[in-house]
Specification:
Elements: E1 5-8, H1 14-25, E2 29-34, H2 37-47, E3 51-55, H3 61-69, E4 80-83, H4 99-127, E5 131-135, H5 148-167, E6 174-180, H6 187-191, H7 196-202, H8 211-223, E7 232-235
Parallel strand pairs: 1-2, 1-4, 2-3, 4-5, 5-6, 6-7
Helix pairs in contact: 1-8, 3-4, 4-5
Bound molecules: 2-hydroxyethylsulfonic acid (8X3).
Length: about 250
């Protein structure tokens, strides 16, 4: 049987990178995308030979289109799309937020996810086969203090996932939303623009999730029998009740 093909966006770090490793180990051919060419090549060298790298900025619809158009014909029938590319920038009151941070989050977390979906899902519909797995967040369930715009983008991911599932209900294409809680990756370092001390505090006094924990759930959803559609999974660190309630040692 031919290898299944998984395309993972934002695969150069964190949950995306962990998904790339998990799917490669599970026997998938993987297409990994991201902006950082060196990181993509590094990962490909580790995981090869069944890896294709696509270097582009997901915020740029034209770049997204031409990267996807460059996929060789024998790798175009993507079985699993993991819409992972996303980030948080800043943690401050909504009325004091940075406009550039907002634009970057909205363009990556919402528009980038939409571009990949719009360009890849029609092929799945045509073949009546495929699986879209969107990485949302506990932050999409309810706003938390100083995180309104990030939370709003993840609420949008929830709405877009639900909408896609409705629009694909007559097909065999499955749609899943994975909502992680506190996962220790470079997420907070990016959020705080490289302030590692502030980033470290986010995970102090709890046992946070790892990127591998989340990649396991993504692969679990993808591996479920075809009649099983894991619609949504919320995965929290122990001692985390939701986006706001975290009990630390
Ligand atoms: C990441 C989870 O709680 O740090 O989306 O916003 S949280």
């Amino acid at each position: 049987m031919e290898k299944q093909i998984a395309l993972i966006t934002g695969a150069t770090s964190g949950i995306g990178e962990a998904c790339a490793r998990r799917f490669a180990r599970a026997g998938y051919f993987i297409i990994i995308t991201g902006r950082n060419s060196a990181r993509l090549q590094f990962l490909a060298a580790e995981l090869g030979p069944d890896v294709l790298t696509l270097q582009f900025d997901i915020r740029d619809a034209e770049a997204c289109r031409s990267a996807l158009d460059s996929i060789p014909a024998h790798l175009r029938d993507i079985d699993v799309l993991v819409n992972n590319a996303g980030l948080a920038l800043g943690l401050e009151p909504e009325y004091e937020g940075d406009l550039t941070d907002w634009t970057t989050m909205i363009d990556t977390n919402i528009k980038g996810l939409l571009y990949a979906t719009r360009m890849i899902v029609p092929g799945m519909v045509e073949r009546n086969s495929g699986h879209v797995i969107n990485i949302g967040s506990v932050a999409g369930d309810a706003a938390y203090a100083n995180g309104a715009v990030y939370c709003a983008t993840k609420s949008a991911v929830k709405a877009l996932t639900d909408g896609l599932r409705i629009d694909l209900a007559a097909t065999d294409v499955r749609v899943t939303l994975i909502k992680p809680g506190l996962v220790e990756t470079n997420f907070s370092n990016i959020r705080f623009h490289g302030d590692t001390e502030r980033a470290d505090k986010v995970y102090r006094g709890i046992d946070p999730l790892t990127a591998d924990d989340i990649a396991d759930t993504v692969l679990y959803a993808a591996s479920a029998p075809k009649h099983v559609q894991i619609a949504e999974m919320l995965i929290l660190a122990n001692h985390q009740a939701n986006g706001s309630i975290i009990v630390r040692d």
